[in-house]
Amino acid sequence: MFVKTGDKVKVITGKDKGKEGIVLSVNVKKNRVVVKGVNKIKKHQKPSQTNANGGVVESEGSIHASNVKVIAKSEGKTNDKKEETKK
Q: Could you tell me the pTM of the whole model?
């Protein structure tokens, strides 16, 4: 897989197109990644010992790895040669 935990990526398709974030986790078997601040989902949770109040908890959901593009860390540019030739 071309994406690793800690890489900075840009979302290229979907409802969060254009957003950038850092990869928090990678699921190689399902080819999915979790990106910080992207694909926010809400889960309703019952009160428990760890979460006494319960309520609605917001967290990041996974997105398919083909929907992200790795951004070069040093220059802040994408690794796509097509975009570089257009400039």
A: 0.74
